[in-house]
Every structure is written in structure tokens, then in C-alpha cells.
């Protein structure tokens, strides 16, 4: 008993030290640090997330260091990030909460979960992942961050899972997962398995979600059409707006307006429980990245990383500016956002890397445009 009490005291002391050592950064300072770490664009969304991060840390410190009663403080915040693929939603969460604040942060693909784990993982194991991110310390996990990626895929109208006896047994359409998330996003006590397993006989721990901030992120393909259809339906007579205005129905890199994402009825029409959407303090639209931002990301992140790799192999990598424009143009055409930048450059450098990596290295590898196509040549160091 004495040993158990000593271990518990040591754990509490470690937790208090962790909270005390959390960075006291202003929202403006976090914003600048994100830029220094290579994050580009999404100024409005970045400002909102930095302010949320500041409030989260301040709230945790006031509760656990200053002894302030939770009833005297604002409730914890949950944010929903809505925007096209490759626009920097999950990257922002990883950099801000995981790298800058160093809070326990779990990035979870929500599509792998189903109600009570019938054909997927039990939603309670979402907190198991957070527990692992906190080095299996329940106290640290209880002040952490959970990011539910691909959140739009659990909309009841978006999941095409079909199984024998559908409608008579467990719900794997996404609605069951939504119901499980309802209690988690609020302040509740959750029985959390210590291991990622389907067994109900493993060790468990009870965790409160009262201080865990949840962020959900998704591309919400087709959401704009749902919102426009509802807006058009609500108009009467000759004032009716065309349903298909703006971006085409198959467009991926679309921008959502604040009015569209702040209307809970649009999410209900998309396939979400309105009470689940209401659990989110803020719904933040992310914009599709423009050519200038993509080029900045390409130069500051993708090119710099590849340059370091080639330098380690003994080569100088030189990429002409026209190549950057061509790569950005392809990313815009394919609507892949920042995610598609590295794949294009990697594809064009594969042959020369395959032939020369690990061998004699005393050359410059130049990437240039020839006849409208990307061309890669091996030059001597002294070549112009």
C-alpha cells in the first residue's frame, strides 16, 4: 500500500511539473512559430487555432496549478476544421499542439471505427491512442488533444458499408460512431482499454474527457452542393438561385463560406447528428491554397528537404524556378493542394536517384523545363 501511494505521488509530481513547463506562448507568438516551421497560408484559421491553443493551456494551468474551480472557467473547446484536401488542416494540428506546445496529441483516422467495434475499432480506443501518445500516463492524456481525421467520412450518407442483416444489428454506417462520440466530446467518464485490442478482458482505466480538446478535420466533398441546394430550396419564386452555381459538382478544391459551415442544418442534410455538430465550439473553414502559397510551400519545405537528401548523397540539387511553376500548376489542376507537390518532384527525380544514389557523387543534378516538360540532367560541378 505504501509503495502504491509513493508511486501515485511521484506520478502526480511529474504531471504538475509537466503542466508547469507547458510553454507560456501568446497566440501571436504561436502564429509566428508556425510560419518559422514552414506553415504557409490559412491566416484566419491559424489565428483561430492559435487562440484556442492558448486558451487550452491557460485553462489547464489555472485548474491544475492555481486550483481554480472548473465552474468559474469557460468550458473546454472542440473545433471542426472544414476544407479541401491538402490545405493544411491536420498539419496545423500536428505542428501547433504536438511540436510547439508538446501536448499529448493523437491523430486518429475516424474511418477505422464502428459502433462498439463491430467491424472496426471501438470508439473508446480513440482515447487509448491518446494514452499511448502520453506515454501511458492517464493524467497527461486527460489534458491532451485528439484530432479526428477524415471526420466527414462518418456522415450517414457518405458511408457505403453494407453487411448482412443491415438495420437489425450493429450500426456501421457512421451514425453509431457519431452517437459514441457525443458523450466523448462532452465532459464524461470513459472506460479506456490500455491496449488496442478487440478483447473485453484487457486492462482498462477510467478517464475524464473534461479537459481533452477534440478537433475534427475533413474535406467534406459535396458539402457545398448540399448547402447550395438547401439555400436554393429555401428561396421562393423568381428569386430562386441556381443549385449548381460556382464550382462544379465534382470539384474538390472548393472554399466554404462561414455562413455555410455555421448552419447546423447543412451538416444534418449532409448526414450528421445536429447535436454532434453542436458539440463543436467553432467550425473553421479552410481555403484551397492558391498558387503563390503552394509555391512558397514547395520552395521552403519540399525543395529544401530534397536538397538536404541529395547533399547527403554527394549531389547538388538545382531546381529552376520555371519547374516550381509547372509543379504548382499540376497541383492546382489535380486539386491535390500541398499534398501533391512532393509526389510530382519525386516522380521526376526517381530515375536519376536510382542510377546514382550510393555511387560516385561529384555532380549537380539540375531540374529544368524543356519543351514544356520537366527534364532532369546530370551536370559537372563546374558547368554553368
Offer a concise description of the structure.
The protein has 14 helices and ten strands. By secondary structure, it is α/β, with parallel strands linked by helices.
Compute the separation of the termini in Å: 76 Å
Provide the CATH architecture of the largest domain: 3-Layer(aba) Sandwich
Please work out how many helical segments DSSP would assign.
Answer: 14
* Widest beta sheet: strand line-up: 2-3-6-1-7
Number of domains: 2
CATH superfamily of the largest domain, please?
Answer: P-loop containing nucleotide triphosphate hydrolases
Mean pLDDT: 83
What global shape is seen? globular
The total beta strand count reads 10
Q: Biggest sheet: strands, sense, closure?
A: 5 strands, parallel
What structural class do helix, strand and pairing data support? alpha/beta
Order of secondary-structure elements = HHHEHEHHEHEEEHHHHEHEHHEE
**Residue ranges: pLDDT <50 for 5 or more in a row?**
159-172, 236-246
CATH class of the largest domain: Alpha Beta
What is the CATH topology classification name of the largest domain?
Rossmann fold
| Estimated helix fraction | 40-55%
Tell me the radius of gyration. 24 Å
Q: Percent of residues in beta strands?
A: 5-15%
How would you sum up this structure, described in words?
With 384 residues, the chain is α/β, with parallel strands linked by helices. It has 2 domains: 2-285, 3-Layer(aba) Sandwich (Rossmann fold), CATH 3.40.50; 291-380, Helicase, Ruva Protein, domain 3. The protein is 43% helix and 14% strand. It contains 14 helices and 10 strands. It has helices at 2-21, 27-36, 43-64, 89-100, 125-133, 138-141, 175-185, 223-234, 258-261, 264-270, 274-277, 291-312, 321-334, 341-356, and strands at residues 79-82, 105-109, 145-149, 189-193, 204-208, 213-218, 282-285, 316-319, 363-370, 373-380. Strands 2-3-6-1-7 form a 5-stranded parallel beta sheet, sandwiched between helices. The protein has a 3-stranded mixed beta sheet with strand order 8-9-10. Strands 4-5 form a two-stranded antiparallel sheet. α2 (27-36) packs across α3 (43-64) and α3 (43-64) runs parallel beside α4. The longest helix is centred in the first third of the chain and has 22 residues, at 43-64. It is globular and about 70 Å long. The termini are far apart. Residues 159-172 and 236-246 have low confidence and may be disordered.
Amino acid at each position: 500500500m505504501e509503495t502504491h501511494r509513493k508511486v501515485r505521488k511521484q506520478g502526480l509530481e511529474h504531471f504538475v511539473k509537466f503542466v508547469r513547463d507547458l510553454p507560456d506562448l501568446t497566440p501571436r507568438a504561436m502564429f509566428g512559430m508556425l510560419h518559422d516551421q514552414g506553415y504557409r497560408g490559412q491566416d484566419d484559421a491559424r489565428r483561430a487555432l492559435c487562440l484556442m491553443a492558448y486558451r487550452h493551456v491557460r485553462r489547464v494551468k489555472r485548474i491544475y496549478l492555481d486550483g481554480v474551480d472548473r465552474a468559474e472557467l469557460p468550458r473546454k473547446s472542440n473545433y471542426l476544421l472544414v476544407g479541401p484536401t491538402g490545405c493544411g488542416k491536420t498539419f496545423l494540428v500536428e505542428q501547433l499542439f504536438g511540436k510547439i506546445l508538446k501536448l499529448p496529441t493523437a491523430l486518429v483516422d475516424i474511418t477505422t471505427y464502428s459502433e462498439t467495434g463491430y467491424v472496426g475499432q471501438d470508439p473508446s480506443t480513440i482515447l487509448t491512442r491518446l494514452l499511448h501518445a502520453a506515454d501511458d500516463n492517464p493524467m497527461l492524456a486527460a489534458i491532451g488533444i485528439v484530432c479526428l481525421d477524415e471526420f466527414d467520412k462518418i456522415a450517414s450518407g457518405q458511408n457505403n458499408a453494407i453487411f448482412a442483416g443491415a438495420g437489425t444489428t450493429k450500426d456501421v454506417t457512421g451514425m453509431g460512431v457519431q452517437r459514441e462520440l457525443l458523450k466523448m466530446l462532452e465532459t464524461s467518464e470513459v472506460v479506456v482499454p490500455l491496449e488496442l485490442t478487440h478483447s473485453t478482458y484487457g486492462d482498462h482505466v477510467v478517464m475524464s474527457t473534461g479537459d481533452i480538446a477534440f478537433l475534427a478535420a475533413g474535406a467534406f466533398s459535396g458539402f457545398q452542393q448540399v448547402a447550395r441546394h438547401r439555400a436554393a430550396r429555401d428561396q421562393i419564386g423568381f428569386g430562386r438561385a441556381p443549385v449548381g452555381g460556382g464550382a462544379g459538382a465534382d470539384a474538390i478544391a472548393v472554399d466554404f463560406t462561414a455562413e455555410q459551415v455555421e448552419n447546423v442544418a447543412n451538416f444534418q442534410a449532409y448526414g450528421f447528428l445536429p447535436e454532434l455538430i453542436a458539440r463543436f465550439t467553432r467550425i473553421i473553414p479552410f481555403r484551397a491554397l492558391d498558387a503563390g502559397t503552394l509555391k512558397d510551400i514547395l520552395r521552403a519545405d519540399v525543395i529544401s528537404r530534397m536538397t538536404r537528401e541529395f547533399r547527403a548523397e554527394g549531389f547538388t540539387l538545382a531546381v529552376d524556378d520555371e519547374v516550381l511553376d509547372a509543379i504548382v500548376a499540376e497541383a492546382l489542376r489535380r486539386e491535390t493542394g500541398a499534398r501533391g507537390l512532393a509526389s510530382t518532384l519525386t516522380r521526376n527525380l526517381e530515375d536519376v536517384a536510382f542510377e546514382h544514389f550510393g555511387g560516385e557523387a561529384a555532380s549537380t543534378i539540375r531540374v529544368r523545363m524543356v519543351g514544356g516538360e520537366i527534364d532532369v540532367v546530370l551536370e559537372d560541378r563546374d558547368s554553368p
